[in-house]
Amino acid sequence: MAYLLGVDTGGTYTDAVLIRDETVVVGAAKALTTRADLAIGVGNAVRSVLAQAGIEAAQVSLASLSTTLATNALVEGQGGRIGLIYIGFKERDLQTHGLADALKGDPCLLLDGGHNHDGSEAQPLDEPRLTTFLETHKSEVSGFAIASHFATRNPTHELRAAELVTQITGRPVSASHQLSAKLNGPKRALTAVLNARLIGMIDRLIGRAQEMLVEIGVTAPLMVVRGDGALISASQARERPIETILSGPAASIVGARWLTGADHALVSDIGGTTTDVALLRDGRPTIDPAGAQVGIYRTMVEAVAMRTTGLGGDSEVHFRTEGLQGGVTLGPKRLLPVSLVAVDDPEVVHQALDAQLRNATPGEFDGRFVRAVPGQTHEGIGPREIALLDRIGDSLHPLDKILRARIETGALKRLVERGLVQVAGVTPSDASHALGRLDAWDAMASVKALRLLGRRRTGAGEMLAPDPDKMAQIIIDQLTQQTALALLETAFAEETPAFDGSPDVLARHILLQRGLGHHRGLLKIDAALNLPVIGLGASAAAYYPAVGTAVGAKMILPEHAGVANAIGAVVGRVTMRESGTVTSPAEGKFRVHLVGGPQDFSDQNSALALLEQALRTKAHADAAAAGAADIQVTAQRDIRTAGVENREVFVEAIVTVEATGRPRVAVG
């Protein structure tokens, strides 16, 4: 009998499930995610599910981890300070694909070097300037990203730069050609920057999770879910953490299919920080050919075609000042719910809320609190941020007692983005506690914070909602509306043939919105989603029935919907993909672009055969290293030709190889 342990670390909860023989859920448990040390939450959830199922830790044959940590970090703009080494590019290339925005002022070196389209060297690598840059910034950053011009045609300059980074700094390094085999240097550079930014936090998570599992007595190998739903080994995930973006959402799609058997449905997973929506077609999630997009970033990472929105149970509630009626919007940033921090420190929270309620006029920071996240590194933060951290110390504080000048709001924002401090405020979770839909935390703290928010004045000079129950319902209604829009946007994005217009505009079009409300006037307009929605997440049962009504769809809320990510984490397969290119720099010459450098052949078949064999060897080895058994390898060739003077001329060929198998499980 084989027991499989699946764990998912979300923004608010860490989930754990035990599955027997890949068919039956024998236990499911939740524990609060512990941001300061995520392994504590992992340990609490695992101990709970083992006790619930009556299973000894040593009986676990396989453990697998999915995480929203990378996804949430990108949505919230968090991650370590890094340095970019940009080889062979121009300064204007930094503006492409949002690369300059992603750098956020981190050190960047534009360096001579790089290669041409055919893999030949464009300029020698300027090693002296690189050495100076590394010596200057080695103590200021947590890692380095390297992207070289046409590195997928010849990666030797990236490899040499990475070697120097390791020798001089000892810091982690992300080389773009190791993350994607596709062209488009700026987009590869963006992917490498995000990967470097994530390395520290993902490495800490996986390392501590492994330590915690061993401490509990689980000695089975640990797998991690990739963004396309496939499994990789823990060591592979630590080297390429960018591949774990959309890990949690991808696991939820796999889990949704396992739980429901549905072939055609929209899957919507609401967490603490994000709502993730994807289409399940013929029982499988589709892979986004353009690369995973999370928030504003479009990467070159293969992942499920999913729309991730900064909307969850812990989304920040913003007071909308425009218009006479006012209102609220939600997200994209996550806050700690007031009801949650009141459990941790009730005296501070209730004293502050009571004092703010006694004030005659609302304050800008009413109902807001701040605390530091212990155990984090502080590279590259300025004196204003250090002073603010010192003032916060180890305690929870009302935010209005910490910020002494408006200029300090910028410093606070930077500390939040670095993951060094957390801000608490009103969230949909607080609204649910006030309305009695949830009872996990301090509902009275929620009521007080909602009363403070409802005192804000609209454009007409009226209070937004003096009654806290009414304020709570306004927030829940807004969550329903924004979730419905996320579903509609995904449907428009996947519709074939496509409608004219962007999905976000179409989802908000007045005719569609009137149709969803079944308009009856001179015109009769009806509209609805034409497929069911599978609602997942711990709070799905509280929020999603109203969402189903809003979009006119059948809402499926399966048993264990709250731990679907953890289920998907352990029922997936190991899949490794490798791709490579053959070009033709001159008639009769076929150039194979390999990691060790280009090789030329005089005939097409020999070039393709060598490339395919190299890719098969690499994919099979990676799958085996990930712990796959019964590995099956398939290959596809995309040969592109052009008509020249009544004959077909070879232009380029892309060979893609896939190795797949179930993780090796020891049956006890």
What does this structure look like?
The model has no long low-confidence stretch (mean pLDDT 90). Strand 23 and strand 24 (524-525) form a beta hairpin. The protein is globular. The chain is an alpha/beta fold and 668 residues long. The strands form eight sheets. A six-stranded mixed sheet has the order 3-2-1-4-9-10, sandwiched between helices. 37% of the residues lie in helices and 26% in strands. The protein is built from 21 helices and 31 strands. Helix 11 (383-392) crosses helix 13 (408-417) and helix 15 packs across helix 16 (468-494).
Summarize the structure.
With 668 residues, the protein is α/β, with parallel strands linked by helices.
